[in-house]
């Protein structure tokens, strides 16, 4: 009977699997006591019995796969229960064995681990995507109770990727994509670099086999031509450290293929343009020596500005610590040097598995383990706030972005956020209540809108208001899964009376700014507004305002002034275009003449009495006066397809030759633009300044015109005028 646990002879289990089991036990004898080694061997016998007769696509007995998974965990030094669960991780899913049988034979902990890794097989899902998402959600919940679940799953995925090439191409590509999008980032998030690198390269080879082979050959060729140079650099650094009486272990390192490929894609560059393919890792005894080594490296070779990163003082989100610097070596070759202690090196490779927490119950956890628990806690918060498994897995993918920025709270605490995170992401990272009530922020003592992306080193203070509520428009620019899930959760809770009450107060405030109140409005005005809004009751309008679906300022204006043809999306100076306003349509929109924003520009909107929303370029000097009134800020965004012409101001310093204006006009006309206004300012000598206002479609159109104008021999300088 499958799962009975009856002892098998090596012949019954298969000679190959029996040999692998013996090799595994030999490995485990290095750090487990004999009793636990015997327990693992019993798990092998139990698993071999349960999987008897089953084979993999490669033709091997199925038990060879669980043994390979267990060996990976054994090389990481995991405990006996983890190893037993690794060997048995498929028996619930693929055999008649019940969870209770595993618990009886090996204890409840092993049974819980096996159940955590097992897929949901008794439920019918509407689609394969939904089934995968729900299985992933189940695994994450199990991981929150015991982090070893994800370690078993990563080792399982690693062996599956090592043997993936026996699968059909379509299935191979799907599994490879899932590995690159989810499992490799999880390995990185947990700091397990050794597994992460192999998963990425195996996924790359399976998903893009031709690109993988070509890039692998290019790297091999380049290494051959540079080996002598790399040896020379290593010897010189070693000599410098020896002379300073610093004991260090220096090893050459090569950026793995997936990392090189990703860098080529992000920079849209060829392989010959990627300079830091090779580098060195320097391992020393203590932190002080790390910084001394950094000084010696900079004394020997010139460091590249902006390429020095101190992850010792500020560790990465996964607990990784090291000093990074990029040196300009011989023949101007760029070489990255990583400097760390032996303990940091172990954590960098093994992450949460370094000095495994379960080996010694009293042993303090390392940085990676602490960060892993914080991350899992964050996943639980996300899980509580999302509606379904597909939404959850998408949020987790967002949360797995590897690049971080580090910003400071007013109290000096460091907050880690993914690259591109905004003020709203920061607010929700501090606390969900802060996020729900945020209206703006002080960044380095300067007022900034909520959509402002944060940069490393900034100090951020969130400004809140008691009546503020989350805006659906925030979902367009937040990047953290925690913020996205919390916003959606809060918006759902705002349904009904609370949203109506909030909307009523916001509209009342808008009317007060016009010296009116709801009681001053005639019934005819309200009825006309309800017809326009397509609702039957005014409370429905207030609820939409409270939920962020309509802007209170514009609802107030419409109630006060009624229908007006000027309420369509308008244009500054008579030019037209398409602007998407989050939360309301039919608003008066004016493009500021001071900065003349065009499609593609980062923009900020301000509600202004008599002018509707005035849209400025984010860099406009004239928006300073609005910074004291963040409640008037409006979230505006260009439509994906913005049409029409927009006026833009350009200044040109030119040689004051005959015919220069005609040449400029010809270029502008040739590129399908018109000059609406021109001023000529005489300067000293033969130089004059042409101040043009011309119509363009977007930033790309303007860039083409400016590029052609720079090519004129008479043009000395050309700039865009913004406020």
Automatic annotation (TrEMBL):
**Part of which pathway?**
Purine metabolism; ppGpp biosynthesis; ppGpp from GDP: step 1/1
Q: Where would one find coiled-coil regions in this protein?
A: none
**A Gene Ontology CC term for this entry?**
plasma membrane
Q: Which domain of life is it from?
A: Bacteria
Record PROSITE patterns: ACT, HD, TGS
The record, for SUPFAM superfamilies, names:
ACT-like, HD-domain/PDEase-like, Nucleotidyltransferase, TGS-like
Domain ACT, by residue range, is 649-723
Q: Which residues form the signal peptide?
A: none
GO terms, molecular function? GTP diphosphokinase activity; guanosine-3',5'-bis(diphosphate) 3'-diphosphatase activity; kinase activity
Give the Gene3D superfamilies listed for this entry.
3.10.20.30, 3.30.70.260, Beta Polymerase, domain 2 (3.30.460.10), Hypothetical protein af1432 (1.10.3210.10)
Q: Where is the HD domain?
A: 62-161
EC numbers listed for it are 3.1.7.2
Q: What class of enzyme is it?
A: hydrolase
Keyword Kinase (UniProt): yes
Sorted UniProt keywords:
Hydrolase, Kinase, Transferase
Query: What is the documented function of this protein?
Result: In eubacteria ppGpp (guanosine 3'-diphosphate 5'-diphosphate) is a mediator of the stringent response that coordinates a variety of cellular activities in response to changes in nutritional abundance.
Q: What family is this protein classified in?
A: Belongs to the relA/spoT family.
This chain's protein is named guanosine-3',5'-bis(diphosphate) 3'-diphosphatase
Which organism encodes this protein? Answer: Spiribacter vilamensis
């Amino acid at each position: 009977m499958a799962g009975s646990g009856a002892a098998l002879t090596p012949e019954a289990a298969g000679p190959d699997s029996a040999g692998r089991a013996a090799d595994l036990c030999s490995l485990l004898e290095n750090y487990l006591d004999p009793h636990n080694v015997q327990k693992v061997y019993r798990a092998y016998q139990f698993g071999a019995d349960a999987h008897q007769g089953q084979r993999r696509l490669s033709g091997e007995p199925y038990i060879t796969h669980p043994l390979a998974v267990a060996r990976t965990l054994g090389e990481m030094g995991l405990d006996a229960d983890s190893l037993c669960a690794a060997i048995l991780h498929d028996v619930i899913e693929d055999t008649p064995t019940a969870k209770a049988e595993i618990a009886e034979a090996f204890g409840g902990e092993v049974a819980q681990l096996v159940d955590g890794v097992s897929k949901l097989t008794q439920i019918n899902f509407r689609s394969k995507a939904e089934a995968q998402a729900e299985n992933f959600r189940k695994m994450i919940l199990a991981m929150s109770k015991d982090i070893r679940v994800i370690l078993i799953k990563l080792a399982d995925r690693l062996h599956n990727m090592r043997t993936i090439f026996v699968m059909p191409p379509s299935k191979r590509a799907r599994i490879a994509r899932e590995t690159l999008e989810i499992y490799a980032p999880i390995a990185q998030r947990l700091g397990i670099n050794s597994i992460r690198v192999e998963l990425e390269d195996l996924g790359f080879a399976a998903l893009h086999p031709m690109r993988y082979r070509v890039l692998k050959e290019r790297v091999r060729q380049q290494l051959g031509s540079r080996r002598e140079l790399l040896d020379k650099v290593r010897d010189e650094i070693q000599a410098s450290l020896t002379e300073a009486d610093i004991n260090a272990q220096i090893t050459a390192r090569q950026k793995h293929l997936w990392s090189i490929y990703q860098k080529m894609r992000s920079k849209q560059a060829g392989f010959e343009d990627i300079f830091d393919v090779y580098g060195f890792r320097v391992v020393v005894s203590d932190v002080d020596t790390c910084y001394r080594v950094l000084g010696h490296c900079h004394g020997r070779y010139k460091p590249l500005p902006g390429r020095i990163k101190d992850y010792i003082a500020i560790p990465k989100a996964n607990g990784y610590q090291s000093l990074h610097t990029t040196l300009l070596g011989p023949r101007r070759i760029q070489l990255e040097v990583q400097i760390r202690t032996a303990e940091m090196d172990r954590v960098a490779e093994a992450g949460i598995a370094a000095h495994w927490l379960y080996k010694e119950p009293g042993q303090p956890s390392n940085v990676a383990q602490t960060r892993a628990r914080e991350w899992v806690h964050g996943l639980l918060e996300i899980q509580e706030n999302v509606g379904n498994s597909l939404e959850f897995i998408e949020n987790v993918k967002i949360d797995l972005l590897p690049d971080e920025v580090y910003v400071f709270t007013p109290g000096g605490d460091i907050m880690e956020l993914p690259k591109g995170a905004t003020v709203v992401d920061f607010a929700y990272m501090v606390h969900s209540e802060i996020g729900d009530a945020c209206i703006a922020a002080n960044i380095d003592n300067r007022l900034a809108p909520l959509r402002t992306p944060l940069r490393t080193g900034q100090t951020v203070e969130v400004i809140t208001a008691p009546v503020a509520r989350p805006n659906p428009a925030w979902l367009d620019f937040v990047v953290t899964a925690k913020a996205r899930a919390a916003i959606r959760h809060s918006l759902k809770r705002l349904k009904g009376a609370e949203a109506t009450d909030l909307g009523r107060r916001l509209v009342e405030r808008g009317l007060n700014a016009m010296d009116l109140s709801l009681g001053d409005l005639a019934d005819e005005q309200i009825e006309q507004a309800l017809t326009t809004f397509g609702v039957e009751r005014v409370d429905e309008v207030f609820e939409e305002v409270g939920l962020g679906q309509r802007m209170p300022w514009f609802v107030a204006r419409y109630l006060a002034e009624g229908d007006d043809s000027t309420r369509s999306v308008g244009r500054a100076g008579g030019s037209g275009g398409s602007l998407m306003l989050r939360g309301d349509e039919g608003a008066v929109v004016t493009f500021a003449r001071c900065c003349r924003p065009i499609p593609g520009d980062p923009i900020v909107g301000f509600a202004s009495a008599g002018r509707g929303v005035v849209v400025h370029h984010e860099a406009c000097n004239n928006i300073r006066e609005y910074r004291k009134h963040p409640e008037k800020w409006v979230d505006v965004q260009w439509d994906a397809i913005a049409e029409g012409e927009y006026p833009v101001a350009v200044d040109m310093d030119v040689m004051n030759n005959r015919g220069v204006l005609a040449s400029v006009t010809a270029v502008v006309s040739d590129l399908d633009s018109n000059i609406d206004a021109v001023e000529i300012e005489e300067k000293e000598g033969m130089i004059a300044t042409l101040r043009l206002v011309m119509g363009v479609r977007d930033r790309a159109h303007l860039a083409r015109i400016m590029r052609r104008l720079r090519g004129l021999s008479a043009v000395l300088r050309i700039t865009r005028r913004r406020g």
